[in-house]
Amino acid sequence: MKNENVIKTCYSILRNVTPLSFDCGKICNGKCCEGDNKTGMLLFPGEEKLIDPDMTIYKNENGDSFAVCNGVCDRNKRPLACRIYPLFPVIKNQHDAEYIEVDFDIRAACPLLSGDFDVSRAFFKKVKRVGKYLLLNEETAEFYRGLSDEITEYNELKNIFENS
Ligand code: SF4
Ligand code: SF4
To answer: Which of 50, 82, 84, 85 gets mutated to test ligand 2 (max ligand atoms within 8 A of its CB)?
Structure first.
């Protein structure tokens, strides 16, 4: 599957699902859309051509692409990072077999991480499905594995810190 098609499929999986049954932006004033012109959403391979053309794209020193928006967007053209936020489908291994476990993204500054809200099970399931699709293209899978490893490291450090 081409990387663009993987991303299009992921967009479509998440099209009709939201973290809460109401607009969660109402509880935080849309905190996750408050970036400035230096903060951007990391783009997956092949995503640059699919997002809102009004967004500015820049590359960091590692060659990763980021999109910067002005705090409003066409929902159908927002990056995948915005669509799965504040969850992440972490790749795990057991007995040499890979599986995906969806959890809150430890890096997210989002009130939903407090556990005080009933985050939709359907949202969790769809983010898991997205994880499975991201593994269907070699380039996308490599990029995704890198992100997943990064989040696993954050989680491990958090556990060490909490248990010390
Ligand atoms: S920060 Fe969290 S609660 Fe607020 S709009 Fe973003 S996803 Fe919703
Ligand atoms: S692209 Fe849309 S959803 Fe993503 S941060 Fe910008 S305004 Fe928010």
So the answer is: 82
**Mind listing the pLDDT tens digit for each residue in 103-157?**
999 999 999 999 999 999 999 999 999 999 999 999 999 999 999 999 999 989 9
**Per-domain boundaries in the chain:** 3-163
Atom 2 (ligand 1) nearest CA: 110
**Ligand 1: centre distance to CA 25 (Å):** 5
Q: Compute the chain's Rg from CA coordinates.
A: 16
How distant, in Å, are the alpha carbons of 47, 51, 63, 134 from that of 145?
Answer: 17, 22, 16, 9
